[in-house]
Amino acid sequence: MNNKKRYYLIKFLGMTILLFAIFVLSIGMGSADITVPQILKALFSSGDAYLDKIIISIRLPRILAAIILGGALAVSGFLLQVFFGNPIAGPYVLGISSGAKLFVALTMVVYLGQGKIMSSAGMVINAFTGALISMGIVLLLSKKVRNMSMLVVCGVMIGYICSAITEFIIAFADDSNIVNLHNWSLGSFSGISWENVYISIIFVTASLFMSFFLSKPIGAYQLGENYARNMGVNISALRVALIMLSSVLSGTVTAFAGPISFVGIAVPHIMRSILKTSKPIVMIPACFLGGAIITLVCDDIARTAFAPVELSISAVTAIGLAPVVIYLLIKRKEAGHGTN
Fold first, then answer.
1. Do 277 and 297 meet the contact criterion of CB atoms below 8 Å apart?
2. 54-113 tens-digit pLDDT
3. Is 226 a residue whose pLDDT tops 70?
4. How far apart are CA 105 and CA 248, in angstroms?
5. pLDDT for the residue numbered 124
6. Which of 14, 44, 126, 260 is the most buried (most CB within 10 A)?
7. Which segments cross the bilayer (predicted)?
8. Three-state secondary structure string covering the chain
9. CA distances from 277 to 211, 225, 240, 281 (A)
10. What are phi and psi of 198, to 5 degrees?
11. Closest CA to 73 of 238, 219, 211, 265
12. Which pLDDT score is estimated for 106?
């Protein structure tokens, strides 16, 4: 094993241990403090019914969702940054999350109006459709607007339009469950069920596997389209794959947790700084781990900082990660080049 591989292994091992430690702490944190022995008893044997309900039915699915969806959002951000060749591209900034939110909210209101509840798979499909349409609009604009900074501004405007329409839909919806819909539209892991977790695992695992499988073509694409073509990469097929994968990942996140800001932008930058590389074969798993850690910590803050009042997850990620993005972009500009 060479020094570089050993360096990556140590970093990955450190992040995995950190994630596990935060996972255990997260189960114990909340309105009812739970000790590690009580956690183990609830997980591996039948203990106190009250604690079992708190851990197994409420906290564990929420924590697992934060890990899975936070990781998915970070990988989606990395794929979009590769696709657009822009360091501030991300599902939230480009309006993709807002498009997914609009479609899910619209469908949920229709279902609630008929006294029905939309399935988890249905939510993901609708979120994916919304994400794909928003991505399509951004791509059409990219043909007219060659300046990437202007493209990002257009993406932000699309996001605002979709969010405004969503607010209108929610404001005029007539249903007792509209409070939950409003909380979801701001970004929240509250109310996540085991069914949501299972569906998330299926969609996210499949997308991550495909992303990892495409690591070599993505790596060639990072070095320029001409280089990738010379290496035998089908550019059109790869671009479609990047769009589809990033839309599935961001759509799955939005379907169950609503829009979450800055994770998709910040985590890829943080992982590049830590690992000193942009190689997809390293960055994809690193972004997943980094996104899982950061999202889980932010969710812990959102639900415990001002308990019993719960903050939206986007409020916490924006406050915590926006300064990080600004700092890293300034640092990157001063360096004058990226690292491969």
1. no
2. 888 888 999 999 999 999 999 999 998 888 887 777 787 778 888 888 888 888 877 777
3. yes
4. 17
5. 85
6. 260
7. 7-28, 63-84, 90-112, 124-142, 148-173, 194-215, 235-268, 280-297, 309-330
8. CCHHHHHHHHHHHHHHHHHHHHHHHHHHCCCCCCCHHHHHHHHHCCCCHHHHHHHHHHHHHHHHHHHHHHHHHHHHHHHHHHHHCCCCCCCCCCCHHHHHHHHHHHHHHHHHHCCCCCCHHHHHHHHHHHHHHHHHHHHHHHHHCCCHHHHHHHHHHHHHHHHHHHHHHHHCCCCCCHHHHHHHHHCCCCCCCHHHHHHHHHHHHHHHHHHHHCHHHHHHHHCCHHHHHHCCCCHHHHHHHHHHHHHHHHHHHHHHHCCCCCHHHHHHHHHHHHHCCCCHHHHHHHHHHHHHHHHHHHHHHHHHCCCCCCCCHHHHHHHHHHHHHHHHHHHHHHHCCCCC
9. 17, 20, 25, 10
10. -60, -45
11. 265
12. 84
Which of 112, 117, 81 minimizes the C-alpha distance to 96?
81
**Best CA proximity match to 78, nearest among 265, 313, 232:** 265
* Sign for the pseudo-dihedral over CA of 316, 319, 322, 324: negative
pLDDT of residue 197: 94
Global confidence as pTM? 0.88
Peptide bond between residue 308 and the one before it cis (omega within 30 degrees of 0): yes
Cα–Cα distance measured from residue 81 to residue 88, given in angstroms and rounded to the nearest whole number:
7
